[in-house]
Request: fold
Amino acid sequence: MSFTFRAGTFNMENLFSRTRALNLQDKDQTAAILADVAKLEELLGKPAYAAADKAQILALTKAQSEYIEIREDRGKLFAGSGATRKVVAAGAKDWDGIVVFKLADIAEEARTSTADVVEALRVDVLCVVEVENRPALQAFNSQSLGTKKFAYPMVVDGNDDRDINVGLLSRFEITNIRTHIFDRQGTKVIFSRDCAHYELKLPDGRPLHVLCNHLKSQGYGDPKESAAKRLLQTTRIAQILMGFNLATDLVIVAGDFNDDPTSPALQPLLSVTNLFDVLQLKFSNPADRWTYQYRGKQNQIDFLLVSKPLKAGFQDAGIERRGMFGVAGITPFPSVISASTAASDHAAIWAEFTV
Reply:
């Protein structure tokens, strides 16, 4: 006996406690901050601090004080305050601590906007991207979704040290979880976050496999290196899919791929046999498939890919853009009155299937 269900994907932009540096609209400014932090961490890791190192540590810490702080867990890196502050540690061995990113205040309207998007999707299964952790997702599920909450909210911590993780909201029972955070090519970790594999039990007992992803960003680091990283990641996802029979198994690959459909970095995944983009099934014009707008340019960088049986049962699909701010021709949800109250700068995707 067949039944109908909906699945979707949505980049929520680090639900609840968004890192302040990552909450900026100017992505170039964010990249500059992260570059300074990388340099700071390099200096802090030196076994011995020269006078020039100490001066640069102070300068970088002061320059980015709005966005970071240094937590001293053992020993002392600094002494004094204000104009008298100085580095007193002779090197990394004299103290222990980390650079901590300060968190932005998330407006109640932003949580409302995010909930509005999720409720509008009317999905049974939702891949969620940029979620801090399971308690944050669980709190959003119970507090913001209320009577429309999901029975199974789940996040597995990934490889991103800023707690930018992927997770799942599901009305179907989660029967198995597999993480790919330990997948490597040589000594290098493949996934920037994870390719989280959730096995769900459908009402008729059949398994539904959902692989949630957030591929390497374009915004930070060398563009060629970032593209090479995404290529490595899509190649690995294609390998993982070889463990399924996409002609018969119910499989979804979803998430923020951080690149457009024409990019060579995505081709190992987008060219997999018996795997189909639901937005291509719905919209014949590529210009209608966009999910992300930056500096006036609109691209599809979010994807919901499905195996052949789901394509056979495909009923409809759509893109929910009302959680975004400043999009011409789109009337947003009432809570979206500024960039800070938007649900995300990504649109959400949904698709309906009868299987």
Notes: The chain has two domains: 4-16+106-354, 27-101.
